[in-house]
Amino acid sequence: MNGITSVTNNKETVWETSDVLSDVNGVKINSVITNLRDSINAHNNRNHSNKKHQIILIGDSNIRGYASSLEPLLNSNYNVYSVVKPGSGTNELEKTANEATRQLTHDDMIILCHGTNDLNLKTLKSPKKKFPCTFQNIKNFIMKNNHTNILVMNIPHQYDIPNSPYVNKIISMLNRKLLKLVQVNPHTSFLEICNDRNLFTNHGLHRNKLGKNLVKLQLASSLLIAFVPNTSKPILLEWYEAHIETNSNEDIKHLKTSNRNSSTSY
After folding, report:
1. With CB atoms counted within 10 Å of each terminal CB, which end of the chain scores lower, N or C?
2. Is 266 domain-assigned?
3. Model confidence, pTM
4. Could you report how far apart the first and last alpha carbons of the chain are, in Å?
5. Residue 81's CB: how many other CB atoms inside 10 A?
6. Residue 228, SS3?
7. Strand partners for 190
8. Arithmetic mean of pLDDT, 94-114
9. What's the total number of domains in the chain?
């Protein structure tokens, strides 16, 4: 099933996609934004406890600016701040964890957006060597921070490099491994953000204004849902990428074929 997958408290919810959207700038995307805003407003209008939640966003430049844009969407129980290190890789996560997360509790949450800068463009033949340590570094981070909640965002696709379809298939495979990792760790959640090319800038590395708006709204909705378990219904989203593969073996087959046929070298 194609869809936006969110796993909260080890329970998986799929926001189904009844229709694949080819034009993300069309009417349907506005409907998605409206549905997300309505959900956020509904949560904020409910009676809440006085429990405070510290939310820390940790990542590279893909997470920049979201802390300030999230605060107006959340109620006064949420305090949001960020640790953004442009150009950093997941090998820096352990140091970041020691500095920024030790005071957090199970009433708080880390939002993790990392992995883009781990890409090794010098390796051509082996998909595993494209992101050699990303999975293990994120796994170690999750294990060492089991005193709080962690929301892992999927690694964004990259459209600014040669042979990006080949690399993005590898990223999709890595994201599925991260989803499986989340499913066996009850303090973690997974948020899959749409990687459609039309949601990225012309340069192709970062999301454009529309893409950032969607990320912001999905994050806000996920945060509000995370601390009121078993009371919320999934939002039906009518868009998603049509090309996401569901079979890892088939992915590898396509990667090998792409590799043989590609005339681009790194």
Report:
1. N
2. no
3. 0.77
4. 34
5. 12
6. coil
7. 7, 152
8. 88
9. 1
| Residue 153 maps to a domain | yes
Tokens read off for 37: 């805003």
H helices present in the chain, as ranges: 27-44, 66-70, 93-100, 134-144, 164-183, 209-226, 248-261
The length of the chain in residues reads 266
The answer, yes or no, to whether residue 111 has pLDDT greater than 90, is yes
Round the CA-based radius of gyration of the chain to a whole number and report it: 18
Question: Distance between CA 159 and CA 167 in Å, rounded?
Answer: 9
Beta partners for residue 186, in sequence order: none
pLDDT digits (tens, 9 = 90+) for 134-187: 999 999 999 999 999 999 999 999 999 888 898 999 999 999 999 999 999 999
CA dist 170 and 159 (Å) reads 13
Number of Cβ within 10 Å of residue 249's Cβ equals 8
Q: pLDDT value at position 57?
A: 95
Q: At residue 233, does pLDDT exceed 80?
A: no
| Residue 126 lies in domain | 3-261
Residue 209 placed within a domain: yes
The H helix count followed by the E strand count for the chain is 7, 7
Helix, strand or coil, per DSSP, at residue 170: helix
Task: Please name which of 245, 126, 129, 254 lies closest in space to residue 195, comparing C-alpha atoms.
Answer: 245
Where do we find the tokens 């429990």?
A: 51
Distance CA 39, CA 4 (A): 16
Q: What is the CATH number of the domain that holds 183?
A: 3.40.50.1110
Residue among 192, 95, 185 nearest 148 (CA): 185
In this structure, how many other beta carbons lie within 10 angstroms of the beta carbon of residue 223? 24
Q: What is the pLDDT of residue 69?
A: 94
